[in-house]
Structures are given as structure tokens and as C-alpha cells.
Design brief:
The chain is of the alpha/beta class. The chain contains 15 helices and 14 strands. Strands 3-2-1-4-5-6-7-14 form an eight-stranded mixed sheet, with helices on both faces. A six-stranded parallel sheet has the order 10-9-8-11-12-13, with helices on both faces. Strand 2, helix 2 and strand 3 form a beta-alpha-beta unit.
């Protein structure tokens, strides 16, 4: 088995989906499987430190002048619109460069399976087709919009632009049919399966997108004794993360503090809001931290808060569960796939005011009931260990690789016992 992981970028520091190819490459090599990775060189220095003994197996696409120009222009557009237009263009340029590198690897290293784990957007085109060996894409996760009550919060130009870009993406998927011709497409949930471009020929298998590295996220109990109670937010500070919801909730929860871990364009906006509401002494913006420090901060907190209104995945939810911490999150998108009433509190996004009130009530509930916080944390960790361990997930993926190598005629089956909750259901698209 000789695997090539192909991704736009691979990074522990970028946040979001960028960490997924890191995990695939790391785990494959730890199991002694021959694997290579092809990514953009923007994370070359980081990968040299993360994989000093495997660095010769990582090949890089150079940062071209066109990449730099597009990155500069993207700063002038709303983030979602930028991702759907200039982001699409930039990644397609990278993919065309990667295609040539992959061809050489197939020739020189006898690669037997290509795996493209990101981008996770279900309709994002792929140019990895017609290479003579099986291609696996995903797990993908997407096919969602803002909650109905929040859709007009996005600028009109962004909404119109995204809708227009969606039509463009359909056309591009016809011209660049990597997804349509892939042997296997992995999807995180039914919502994502329904969002795939029409005409997919290969098998579509449900497999959870995220996983947990228990060597980092290894807390085992909730700390509920501190006063004031500290809640933690982990993530990039972009508008749809809606950290302002929790900042406003603090106004009515005087014994609570919020620690915001991450950077992004909304930092100063939310810092100013905390000052205007008079809660600046209870909102602590600590910036970006490495995962190990994030885990320590989370361990010292009462719970994770994730007020995001556009969260397809939500790896931080799994990480909090692994640490034995309850989660308060918006009942929308990815968190709904991971949480139930035994491990967290989901707030209905009926309106902005309802979301603020819901987070305030949930925070107060956990603060006033330490035994509930401990119980939820324990339940969440139990489920995390059972269903979301990266070590189990990689075995499921290896089984898929092996089935493709063996040219199995029967539906794919996993070699490990029970798969994660979003795994092992197979569909054929019509």
C-alpha cells in the first residue's frame, strides 16, 4: 500500500480543516505505511518541525505570484464570498500544480491510492482524475447555510455573490470532474451527501470528518470549583463564530468569565463590544495558542462555548468532550452531529436575542449545578473515546484503501468493530 495525501495545505497552526492531512500523514507513517504528502509551501517551515524524520516525503507547490495576488485581493471581500470565488480560483491553481507532482510520484514511487481530504466543501471541484489509480476524496462536510433567522445578517452582496458562485462551481465540476469520477467519496453526514455535485459515479460512504488526538486532549474531569466560573471559546475570530453572543450573555451572568483563544479580523470589534458593555474585565482575549496550551486552558475551565451560526464540523466540540468538559453550542450544523443532552446544551438559534438569552441561561445552569457539569463531561468523554478516536478512524480509512487496492466487488466493510456514528453507511447516488 502506497498512499499519496493531496491537500491545499497541512497545518496544526492554521486551525479548521488544515489539520486533517497532518493527521492522515502522521498516522499512516506511524503504522509503517508508505505515504507521501503534496501541499502548498506556505506551511513548509511548520511541517519541517512537525515531521523532521519524514520531511523528504512531503512535496511542495511553490507560492506563485498569482497565489499572492489572489490572497491580497481576497481581503477586500466578505469571507464566505471570498472563499467561494477567489478561494476557489486559488485552490484550483494549486491543484493543477499538484497534479503534475502526483503524476511523478505515481511513476517514481508506484503510488497505489490518492487521498484528497481537503477542501471539505462538498461541491468544491477536484482536478485529480484520469491518473490511472484509485482516488478517495473526503470526508467532506458542508451543504449548509446560516440559520433562517440570521441569513439577512450577511451583506446582500455576499449572498448574491455566493449564489452566483454556486452556479459557477456546478459548471466547473462538469469541466473538472474529479469528484464525479472519484472511486470513493467520504461524507460526514446526509446533509453533505445531498450537497454533492450531480453525477457522482463512485461509492459514497459516511465517515465522521473530525477525530481526536488523545495524546493532546487527555483531560478526564471537569473543574467546577473556580469562582468566577471560566468559560472558554476556541477558534478563529470571524463573524460567523458569533463570540459577541457570549460577550452579551456575560452581562446577565455576573459570576462568569470568558477566555477567547484565537485570532482573526473580529478581535478588535469584539474587544470594543466588551468595553461598551462594561464586561471587559471578564473577557480575556489571549490570542492564538498551540494545542497543548489550549488543552490546559480548557482543562481549567467549566465548559466550552461555541455560539457559531455556521459550523459545518466543530472539532473543538470533540476536543472538549475528550477533556471531560461539557459544551454549550448553537443547535445548528456540526455540533448537532456530536452533542446530545447527556454531554452538552444546544441552544436554538430562533433569533439573536434568543441565542444570547439561551447561552446566558445555559452558563448559569452549569454554574449552579456542578454535578451536572461533571456528569455531562464524563458522558462526553465516554462517547469521544468510543466514537471519535483518530486511531480508530485511520483503521477505517486504511480498510477503504485496501478494498480499492484489492478491487473489491462487494460493498466496502471496515476491519475494526463498530465504526463512528457517522460511519459505515454506504449510498449510491442516482
Amino acid at each position: 500500500m502506497r498512499i499519496c495525501i493531496v491537500a491545499e495545505h497541512a497545518s496544526k497552526n492554521f486551525g479548521g480543516e488544515a489539520i486533517l492531512p497532518v493527521h492522515y500523514f502522521r498516522l499512516l507513517r506511524s503504522l509503517g505505511i508508505e505515504a507521501w504528502m503534496v501541499v502548498h509551501e506556505r506551511t513548509r517551515n511548520e511541517l519541517a518541525m512537525v515531521f523532521p524524520d519524514q520531511f523528504d516525503r512531503i512535496l511542495f507547490v511553490p507560492d506563485l505570484w498569482i497565489h499572492k495576488l489572489i490572497n491580497h485581493l481576497s481581503g477586500y471581500l466578505p469571507r464566505r464570498l471570498s472563499t467561494a470565488t477567489l478561494g476557489l480560483l486559488n485552490q484550483l491553481i494549486t491543484q493543477f500544480c499538484q497534479r503534475g507532482i502526483v503524476r511523478r510520484l505515481i511513476r517514481d514511487k508506484q503510488i497505489s491510492v490518492i487521498h484528497q481530504p481537503i477542501p471539505v466543501a462538498p461541491r468544491f471541484p477536484s482536478v485529480l482524475h484520469g491518473l490511472g489509480i484509485p482516488v478517495v476524496i473526503g470526508p467532506l462536510n458542508g451543504g449548509m447555510e446560516y440559520p433562517p433567522a440570521f441569513r439577512r445578517a450577511e451583506p446582500l452582496v455576499a449572498r448574491v455573490g455566493i449564489a452566483t458562485a454556486g452556479l459557477f462551481v456546478n459548471v466547473v465540476n462538469g469541466l473538472l470532474p474529479g469528484k464525479k469520477q472519484a472511486d470513493v467519496i467520504l461524507v460526514a453526514n446526509e446533509r453533505t451527501r445531498l450537497a454533492l455535485p450531480s453525477g457522482v459515479r463512485g461509492r459514497v460512504i459516511e465517515l465522521v470528518e473530525n477525530g481526536i488526538d488523545f495524546s493532546v486532549w487527555q483531560g478526564i474531569s471537569a473543574n467546577v470549583e473556580s469562582t468566577p466560573a471560566r468559560f472558554v471559546f476556541l477558534g478563529r475570530l470571524v463573524d460567523w463564530k458569533a463570540v459577541d453572543v457570549v460577550i452579551r450573555a456575560l452581562k446577565t451572568v455576573p459570576l462568569a468569565e470568558l477566555e477567547v483563544i484565537g485570532n482573526g479580523p473580529m478581535l478588535e470589534v469584539w474587544r470594543k463590544l466588551a468595553g461598551e458593555l462594561g464586561v471587559q474585565d471578564r473577557v480575556h482575549f489571549v490570542g492564538w495558542l498551540p494545542q497543548e496550551q489550549c488543552a490546559a486552558r480548557l482543562q481549567a475551565s467549566l465548559a466550552l462555548v461555541l455560539p457559531s451560526i455556521y459550523e459545518c464540523g466543530g472539532a473543538v466540540v470533540l476536543e472538549s468532550m475528550a477533556m471531560g468538559k461539557p459544551v454549550i453550542a448553537t443547535r445548528w450544523g456540526g455540533p448537532v452531529d456530536y452533542l446530545d443532552e447527556s454531554s452538552g446544551i444546544l441552544i436554538e438559534p430562533k433569533s439573536y436575542a434568543d441565542l444570547v438569552a439561551g447561552f446566558a441561561e445555559a452558563m448559569t445552569r452549569l454554574m449552579s449545578s456542578p454535578e451536572l457539569a461533571v456528569s455531562m463531561g464524563a458522558s462526553g468523554r465516554k462517547r469521544a473515546v468510543r466514537d471519535f478516536d483518530w486511531q480508530k478512524k485511520i483503521q477505517q480509512v486504511i480498510s477503504i484503501y485496501q478494498a480499492l487496492e484489492d478491487k473489491a466487488e462487494e460493498p466496502l466493510e471496515y476491519k475494526e468493530g463498530r465504526a463512528s456514528p457517522a460511519a459505515v453507511s454506504e449510498h449510491r447516488l442516482r
